[in-house]
Fold this sequence. Notes:
Helices cover 22% and strands 29% of the residues. It is of the alpha+beta class.
Amino acid sequence: MIKRYILVQHFLPQQFLLLISLLLLLTGCGQEEVSSEYHIEYLNKEKTKIIKMPYEPQADSVEELIPQFLAMLSSDPDSVECRKPIPNDVEVTDYSLDGALLSIYFDSDYNNMNAVEEVLCRAAVVRTMTQIDGVDCVTFYVGESPLSDADGNIIGSMNEESFIENPGEQINSIQNTSLTLYFSNEEGNGLVKEIREDVYYSGNISLEKLIMEQLLEGPQMEGIKSAIPEGTKLLTVSVVEGVCYVSLDGTFRNQDYQVSEAVVIYSIVNSLTELPTISKVQISVKGDTSGVYRDTFELSHMYDRNLDYVVSEAVLRTEEATEEE
């Protein structure tokens, strides 16, 4: 049976036209039906489709399976009808597993792939690696930088659900929602709740990513300000078993002592835990959870919702403004 797959992302029109044309055929490259517990996803000879081939690993722990799977993805398959998804001139230089997030580092030659081959490579790698129990999502780096699209937008973490079957009108669909975000008051010692009604967004973006993007853009109300250091960029955001893992770039460590560290942390935590699917938040800097944020807040800690820093008077002003609209 032919299945159509496409990477779920926030695409510009030209990217959409390119990617909607991809047909990722999951047949057997002339093989019988896959019965193995695991498989490796390869490209067909023309590098236009994905092919699933059975694989019996020589290990069963996540620490041993990851390098084995990466080696297979970089090695020529037995069948002449298949091609390895990671091409000859692209090298996997490193990888790391932080919780359930697998980060894979490629050398600069990764950027030499054409757009179609790159998307197929990414799909094959992500779908192969997330078979491993303990790997729920994957993020790509080229050198030390997170993988970006042609327009400079960071792609972020991906999982099996990042590739959907027969998406049809789900691609680029527009949805709307209400968001409750938390920003800093003018004094920098309290949080202000800003309720936004009818926020329109692409159906291809997750709500947790939407919340982080809105936080980084700053408040819409007057008299409040962003708690997050100016210029901070979102690298990845993903949710695994109720924990939201947020990775920000190094700008996040910039010190702005006009905003207390607790206000910075709980601006992010409280905004994300407004979603019923999120109960805790862990914040990292470029995937690194070692050390502390400023003086007190350990990055390795998973933070619960904390409304103690919310300034009640500011919340009332927000609600009044919403009612007047």
